[in-house]
Amino acid sequence: MKTLLISSIALLTLTVSGCGSPAQVNVGNKVNEIQNSTSKQVSRKPMAPSFSLTELDTSKKVSLKSLLAKGHPVILNAFASWCAPCNKEAPELQKLSKQYQGKVTFVGVDTMDTVSGVKKFVRKHNLTYPVLLDNQENSFGSEYDVIGLPDTYVISSGGKIVIRHEGILSKGEAASIFKSAAKFS
Q: What does 118-132 look like in DSSP terms, one character per residue?
């Protein structure tokens, strides 16, 4: 009961507050100064933490290494089906993932959610890009220091985090993220 209460409070806090905009980004235990208040160029460009997560549709394991092997920059968007901002940005992300197909690899990472919830989310938004499931231990969320949703990362083809955007992406911000990502080949 106590665990349920704590989980409920955490969920309510994330839902009400959306995403924070801290003055620093902590990725893989390396604190990196950031610029701008929303989309942040990561100044010391740390290597992106590796991961191996289950793909929703195929149940196959997908690693960051396998995504980078395609030779394109990778955009990771951490989301959850219950997150209102995530629902709002999903149609634009779907559109841009198709537009930039072959130039960037776009992947959704569902975290802090249920499988049934994410399946409904995918159907609701007609998503065609790969959706990976963070595990019960929230390893992706921990490694990437996801403190609010949505949270978006651009990883260069060399495996470095070059941009992090905390919070909902407006249509203009989403377009800018994809355009910028395409330059990090």
A: HHHHHHHHT--S-EE
